[in-house]
């Protein structure tokens, strides 16, 4: 049971209520985040832009999200993003290697290995040594590198939110929410 009671979407108003009304599933992560009334809408917009608007490819994005979830102990994010990852083309072998922390596994190509080495440094050490940054420059644009950092930081925040509050795990619904986010929102 969560350490802080989840917000009842029916008790919200305004833009927060409208956002909940558009959701196909009212996930507990959003019900917890709703306590931060000034932050939930901007956070949801940032999350949506990461999932649907970045130049960084979907497979690479999901590899980073799963890596952040694994390294941060984000069980909630892991549960929701494994189906999304599989849905966008991440293989089960890649997911298994991520879960084992084996970024040198043959399941990853050179660009993915560079990405995951970079991701680990960003997550664990913040600063990235030149010998880890250089391969990122070989495979990714400046925009994709910065987007990678933004994606990592966002999912580190979400893992901290769900783990610190012990937010109850929802059944896996990430792909439903992901697909709903592709559609233009209506007021």
Could you characterize the architecture of this molecule?
- Helix 4 packs parallel to helix 6 (92-99), helix 4 runs parallel beside helix 9 and helix 7 crosses helix 9.
- It is built from ten helices and no strands.
- The two termini are 33 Å apart.
- The model has no long low-confidence stretch (mean pLDDT 94).
- The chain is mainly alpha-helical.
- The chain has helices at 14-22, 28-33, 37-52, 58-72, 75-88, 92-99, 110-125, 130-139, 142-164, 174-182.
State the main characteristics.
single chain, 187 residues, mainly alpha, AhpD-like, 10 helices, 0% strand, elongated
User: Average pLDDT, to the nearest integer?
Assistant: 94
SS-derived structural category: mainly alpha
Compute the number of helices.
10
Look at the structure and name the CATH superfamily of the domain at 57-177.
AhpD-like
Rg (CA only): 17 Å
Uncertain segments: none
The level 1 CATH classification of the domain at 57-177 is: Mainly Alpha
Measured by DSSP, the beta-strand proportion falls in under 5%
Helix content: 55-70%
Summarize the structure.
This protein is mainly alpha-helical and 187 residues long. The chain has helices at 14-22, 28-33, 37-52, 58-72, 75-88, 92-99, 110-125, 130-139, 142-164, 174-182.
Question: What's the helix and strand layout?
Answer:
Elements lengths: L13 H9 L5 H6 L3 H16 L5 H15 L2 H14 L3 H8 L10 H16 L4 H10 L2 H23 L9 H9 L5
């Amino acid at each position: 049971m969560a350490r802080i009671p989840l917000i009842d979407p029916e008790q919200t108003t305004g833009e927060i209520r409208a956002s909940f009304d558009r959701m196909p599933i009212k996930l507990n992560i959003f019900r917890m985040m709703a306590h931060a009334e000034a932050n939930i809408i901007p956070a949801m917009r940032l999350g949506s832009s990461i999932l649907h608007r970045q130049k960084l490819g979907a497979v690479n994005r999901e590899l980073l999200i799963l890596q952040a979830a694994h390294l941060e102990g984000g069980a909630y994010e892991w549960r929701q993003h494994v189906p999304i990852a599989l849905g966008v083309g991440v293989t089960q072998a890649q997911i298994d290697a991520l879960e084992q922390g084996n970024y040198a596994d043959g399941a990853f190509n050179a660009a993915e290995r560079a990405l995951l080495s970079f991701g680990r440094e960003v997550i664990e050490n913040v600063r990235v040594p030149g010998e880890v940054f250089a391969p990122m420059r070989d495979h990714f644009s400046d925009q994709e590198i910065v987007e990678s950092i933004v994606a990592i930081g966002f999912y580190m925040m979400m893992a901290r939110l769900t783990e610190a509050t012990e937010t109850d795990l929802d059944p896996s619904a990430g792909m439903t929410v992901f697909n709903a986010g592709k559609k233009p929102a209506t007021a």
